[in-house]
Amino acid sequence: MKLKRLLNMITTSISAVILTVIALAATAMPAQALGHKHEGGYILTITNTMDDELLAPILVTRTKHDREIFEHHYVTPEAEVQILTGDPGDLAERIGKNAIVRHGSDGPPGVLLAPGKSIEIPVSGRAAVRLIAMVAPTEFPDHFVTAVINPRAELPVMMDRYDIGHNEGTKTTKFVSSAAAMISVRIDKDDKMQDDMMDDDKMKDDMMKDDMMKDDMMDDDKMKDDS
Predict the structure, then answer these.
(1) What is the value of pTM for the model shown?
(2) What b/e string do you get for 109-124 counting C-beta neighbours within 10 Å, with b at 16 or more?
(3) Domain edges within the chain
């Protein structure tokens, strides 16, 4: 009964954007947009580990697009829309072909990820990716979860939760808690063999590019320190 009441609350709070979310999900960029076929691929499994809160549709993109999401101690206007409404359409459009969106199938209207439920997201390539999603506003109106995945590590990663301070009027992103959702990485056997033959210099180049952009983006560790 408690979950049913929560779902009803969610329906009321995001009903204005639900049709947009569904349309976006139906026409979302294919996973191959994140990489090239010859680079191999992997599967992300996202599990909602919160007690009774749900996750809105999840956007996935390469970490080089962090500057399209984070802006100083806050988020970009497009990311703000996703965090406040659950609709990642504006952010996906700003990022372009390197953004994909996937969603759960719970609750009315069937695009949310309920506690204990999981979804899988296929991704091509070996570059690090960021995931971001709104926490459905049953308890807080402006919280989101995010994490960075390095597929080469093949280790489970917990998504951290943040408050953007919109309803408080501060508009400052603050770390709230860890373990809002868990992400596991699975690399297919054939892809693993192919990955072993890849040159590690490519990964080093990607890391150097990410380092050069640190001044323009808010990484997760800095957000935690600031809070």
Answers:
(1) 0.74
(2) eebbbbbeeebebbbb
(3) 2-226
